[in-house]
Design a protein that fits this description.
- The chain is an all-alpha fold and 59 residues long.
- Helices cover 85% and strands 0% of the residues.
- The chain has 2 helices and no strands.
- The longest helix is centred in the middle third of the chain and has 41 residues.
């Protein structure tokens, strides 16, 4: 039983997979936060642009 446990603790064959999963999850979370920030900023910009265009007299 102890030899199996020692062998399991020394085995690193799945470590790279776990690293990639954590890295991918971090990239996805960062992308989601970036989209949220850009979306809220662009909505405010679009509203301000619309208000400015309504106030203009073209003729």
């Amino acid at each position: 039983m102890t030899t199996k446990l020692k062998r399991f603790c020394k085995d690193t064959s799945g470590a790279v997979t776990v690293d990639w999963i954590v890295l991918t999850a971090a990239v996805v979370a960062l992308a989601a936060m970036t989209v949220t920030v850009l979306q809220s900023g662009s909505e405010g910009l679009a509203e301000n642009t619309g208000d400015f265009m309504i106030d203009q007299n073209f003729f």
